[in-house]
UniProtKB/TrEMBL annotation:
Principal subcellular localisation of the protein: nucleus
Name this protein carries in UniProt: Xylanolytic transcriptional activator regulatory domain-containing protein
Organism: Verticillium longisporum (Verticillium dahliae var. longisporum)
Annotated spans, Disordered: 479-502
Subcellular location: Nucleus
UniProt domain Xylanolytic transcriptional activator regulatory: residue ranges: 6-181
Length: 547
């Protein structure tokens, strides 16, 4: 297992969403058998999964670690929360999106109960930094389900009273060459979150917004400020990429540049008339045409830069690189933008269709190489392939490629019941794990309609419960067996624990902010619940331009 622990910190830890463990402390405790057993199991499971080792063994490890969390649900600690974050990552990576989504809410409760969203000046620097990184990693993880939707924001930025992460050189004494990249990535994450909130607030408007350009320029200035302190500037050249190949921090350095460009794309696509994420026509009609043209140029410039970074990395790398999921998300949006601008852009110097298709193909090739078997990225690759196919086959007239409504009548029916404003505001992209989870609308709760429980699925794959990894003190909790067949197994819904010590009560306001009146309709006012986001395929915008 020590080999897997070392492999985790060598290959997985550099990913920004995994940066919440202190390498030296964790490895030392693993060697001395002093680490929380569930945490060690989760670390090894993640390493085995990424290395292509025995997947069944990794699943047993993660199942045992999750069982330990359920047995101590009322007693959150830092090691248990770190374990839970690794469990969520494993569930995400293996396609268990529904379970991962629910566990993420539990992780947010753990963090709130321990008040990790506040600084602790009385602690040593390493402990303070670990607390910060747990919260920021949770924030990164949260955006993979949805971003900019307040009803699903578990730990709002407004309730995080923490400094940004410290440079790796201060956190890990043996580290060199990270140069504060993780800190900049978190700063970019907050800006992209604010931009998406702006995007979603603009989408349902039925009147002009005179302050739109002012808001956009405010975010542009924030991005410019970050660009001023980025190591080696804002443009990652081919030579710089080659120099990063031997660095353990390549995933962070590459994503820092890509995320900076993506933030510009997210911001300027609001001005891209006809684009799915653009402001409504009534808003854009009041915008100066020069600003609209500048927005289109910015979208094309930054989207092309993202594709070029990935292309350089793919061409320079002699082996597959382990990259953050967000890298694939940015690549997908960059390809969509280039294809859209080539077809519908207003600039006479916009790229030719052949060039746009070739850029998208390069992007697709890189994703297939760097994410060959990822359950997270597979939908992105499939959707991008469809986009390229539609674009290449029908450059003049794509009306025949309209989605057949008979293929998914339930989703279409649900979508048609939502107001246009709600659809625009709550639209989730193909890479949203909340969209992929496909939660029920709450009507199919009869026993015979339920999906198989986790244990039934695990048994079908030949997996075991993994009880060997439960701590000895876990058995102090009492469990009750449910009378329902679907919840008979321990891990299906987790045991009911009676913990008589260490319980921490936390008020609901710990993570919540008084945001005032909401522009979206309430659940009672809507024909269907808010979980009905199933709209047109993401390539429908290629078929006919929005008006």
């Amino acid at each position: 297992m020590l080999v897997l622990v070392d492999a985790f910190f060598e290959n997985i830890y550099p990913l920004p969403s995994y940066a919440f463990l202190h390498p030296e402390t964790t490895k030392r405790r693993c060697r001395d058998a002093q680490v929380h057993r569930a945490l060690a199991s989760a670390v090894c499971a993640i390493a085995a999964l990424h290395m292509g080792r025995d997947r069944q063994l990794a699943s047993r490890w993660i199942q045992g670690a999750e069982q330990s969390i359920w047995l101590h649900l009322g007693s959150p600690t830092i090691p248990r929360l770190q374990t839970l974050l690794l469990i969520i990552h494993f569930r995400m990576e293996t396609g268990a999106f529904q379970r991962a989504f629910m566990l993420t809410a539990t992780a947010a409760r753990f963090a709130a109960a321990m008040r990790l969203n506040y600084e602790r000046p009385d602690l040593d620097p390493i402990s303070r930094e670990v607390r910060r990184r747990i919260v920021w990693s949770l924030k990164i993880m949260e955006r993979y389900f949805s971003i900019g939707l307040p009803e699903f924001e578990l730990c709002p930025i407004e309730s995080i009273y923490l400094e940004f992460p410290s440079p790796e050189e201060q956190f890990e004494t043996k580290s060199q060459g990270e140069n504060g990249t993780y800190r900049l990535l978190v700063r970019l994450e907050t800006i992209r979150r604010d931009v998406m909130k702006l995007n979603r607030s603009v989408a349902p408007l039925d009147e002009s917004l005179p302050s739109l350009i002012k808001l956009i320029r405010h975010h542009q200035q924030s991005l410019s400020d970050i660009g001023m302190v980025m190591p080696e500037g804002t443009h990652l050249t081919e030579t710089q990429t080659l120099g990063l190949l031997g660095s353990p921090w390549l995933p962070r350095r590459v994503l820092m540049h890509i995320s900076w460009h993506q933030a510009h794309c997210d911001l300027n696509r609001i001005l891209l008339s006809g684009y799915p994420e653009a402001a409504p026509p009534i808003v854009l009609e009041a915008v100066d045409p020069a600003d609209l043209a500048a927005g289109e140029r910015q979208c094309l410039e930054h989207a092309t830069s993202i594709i070029q970074i990935l292309t350089n990395l793919n061409q320079q790398s002699t082996q597959r690189q382990c990259l953050e999921f967000d890298t694939a998300i940015c690549a997908y949006h960059a390809a969509r933008l280039v294809l859209f601008i080539s077809r519908f852009g207003r600039d006479p110097d916009r790229p030719a269709p052949e060039f746009a298709a070739s850029r998208a193909d390069l992007c697709l090739t890189a994703l297939k190489r760097f994410f060959p078997s990822s359950a997270l990225v597979a939908p992105i690759i499939e959707e991008l392939q469809r986009c390229i196919g539609v674009f290449s086959q029908q450059q003049d007239d794509l009306t025949s490629f309209k989605l057949d409504p008979t293929k998914e009548p339930t989703r279409r029916d649900l979508e048609s019941q939502l107001s246009a404003a709600a659809r625009a505001r709550q639209r989730l992209a193909i890479h949203s794990l909340l969209r992929q989870a496909e939660f029920s609308d709450g009507d199919d709760d009869e026993e015979h309609d339920r999906e198989p429980g986790f244990i039934e699925q695990a048994s079908a794959q030949g997996l075991e419960r993994g009880g060997d990894f439960v701590n000895q003190d876990d058995h102090r909790c009492n469990t009750r067996a449910s009378g329902h067949k679907s919840t008979a197994s321990l891990a299906s819904d987790g045991p009911v624990c009676h913990t008589h010590n260490g319980n921490t009560e936390v008020e609901a306001s710990d993570w919540q902010v008084n945001t005032g009146s909401q522009s979206s309709p309430s659940i009672e006012q809507m024909a269907t619940p808010l979980l009905s986001w199933f709209g047109p395929q993401d390539w429908d915008w290629l078929s006919s331009r929005g008006t």
